[in-house]
Design a protein that fits this description.
The protein is mainly α. The protein has 18 helices and four strands. It folds into two domains: 141 residues, no CATH class; 161 residues, no CATH class. The chain is globular and about 65 Å long.
Length: 402
């Protein structure tokens, strides 16, 4: 089934200036957006507040009324609270206005699908938008004071940005991806799952891409794939061991290494990480940087990993037996048999900085414009820090891309 004439199709393909050239397809798409507007806004304030909605609305109201806000993971990220409180300050506080942000993001998710027409076709974009509009799940949460409407929009834009960069290689799509990733991490914990899914897709794509490039040595190429296979086995064993763990841990005796008492699950995790790093080392040795620059999937992997590594610092701290939420206490740290008393804050710094070192040179060598990499990283952490801190603290993170 085709919408519009062949001339319309040619006009779509050749013109980037007109976002919505008028033809049968665009008229149908506009009609879908109008249906989405009506279905999302109709009788929006009549339904009684549910439990989750009451919490999100109440703490947004406190932020609006008194400027008081304290982030708690129980209610997910702070992005929603700041957005709702901003709506309150403009349109007043009531049940209707508290749901307006979710409605706007739900409609924006549907409208943004027009950008996908290059990859799923005009018919695909129209059908997908129609399904988004009538989906009971998407409609329900598109009228609900929770994070799902925001997450869907951020995910839709992120996937598009990844596809566009893989297709065209323009840096602006990396900026968009960085901003969406920052906002997603400020919205809900699904950001970790979504980012892992994106990395899985990019990782598989990279494996197909790297086969096509010449290696300096056939043995290095074979070693790369062997180590990756071993890493996969280690990961399977790790999660299988964790899933089948006995309730009393009777069958899982801890292993003592350099003063650290590690469960087999932790030990296998460490081995898997070391295997991944070894595979990367072989990759950098076996393939010229000039060839790696041409593999866009690898560029996006390096960018995303550089952006999200600081969000993973709680994992190594927890594995070491420390409290990742405590930045003030002094702790006894055993290194090579000797005990050192250091501020726990330094363990945070080490956990953040040390994993970034292997990426710095790679990151700088991969991007054609050296400043672009740092700007993307700064863009993410500006959004992240701005939203996680009170508005009166914004000047700690000046928006500067010099």
């Amino acid at each position: 089934m085709s919408f519009g004439s062949k001339n319309d199709q040619a006009h779509f393909d050749s013109s980037e200036q007109k976002i919505l050239p008028i033809n049968k397809t665009t008229l149908i798409f506009i009609l879908i957006i109008l249906v989405a507007l009506i279905s999302r806004f109709y009788d929006l304030g009549s339904r009684a507040m549910s439990h989750d909605e009451s919490l999100h609305t109440y703490y947004s109201w406190l932020l609006f009324k008194n400027g008081n806000y304290s982030h708690t993971a129980m209610m997910h990220g702070p992005f929603q609270f700041h957005l709702i409180s901003s709506i309150f300050s403009i349109f007043g506080d009531n049940d209707f206005t508290s749901r307006v942000p979710a409605v706007l993001f739900s409609i924006a998710s549907i409208a943004f699908l027009w950008k996908y027409k290059k990859y799923i076709g005009k018919t695909g974009a129209v059908v997908t938008a129609a399904l988004f509009t009538i989906s009971p799940f998407l409609m329900y949460y598109g009228r609900y004071v929770r994070n799902e409407a925001f997450v869907i929009f951020l995910s839709v834009v992120s996937i598009w940005a990844v596809w566009k960069y893989l297709d065209e290689g323009e840096n602006k799509y990396l900026y968009i991806l960085s901003a969406m990733t920052a906002l997603h991490f400020c919205t809900k914990e699904t950001s970790f799952i979504f980012t892992a899914q994106i990395l899985l897709f990019l990782g598989v794509l990279f494996l197909f891409d790297v086969i096509k490039v010449p290696w300096k040595s056939k043995k290095l190429q074979q070693a790369f794939y062997i180590i990756l296979a071993l890493t996969f086995i280690f990961l399977i064993a790790t999660f299988s061991l964790k899933g089948n763990e006995a309730p009393d841990n009777a069958s899982l005796a801890p292993v003592n290494i350099l003063g650290f008492s590690l469960e087999p699950f932790m030990l296998l995790t460490i081995v898997a990480v070391i295997s991944i790093l070894a595979a990367l080392l072989i990759l950098f040795i076996g393939v010229n940087n000039s060839l790696l620059k041409r593999i866009r999937s690898f560029e996006v992997i390096v960018l995303i990993m550089t952006l999200i590594l600081p969000n993973l610092v709680a994992l190594p701290i927890s594995l070491a037996g420390w409290d990742p939420l405590d930045l003030s206490t002094m702790i006894d740290t055993v290194i090579l048999g000797r005990t050192y008393v250091i501020p726990q804050y330094f363990t945070w710094v080490a956990a953040i900085v040390i994993p970034l070192f292997p990426y710095i040179n790679c990151y700088r060598s991969l991007v054609e414009e050296e400043a672009m990499g740092y700007q993307c990283t700064y863009l993410l952490w500006y959004f992240h820090s701005f939203i996680y801190n009170r508005f009166h603290q914004w000047n700690w993170f000046p928006l500067w891309f010099g």
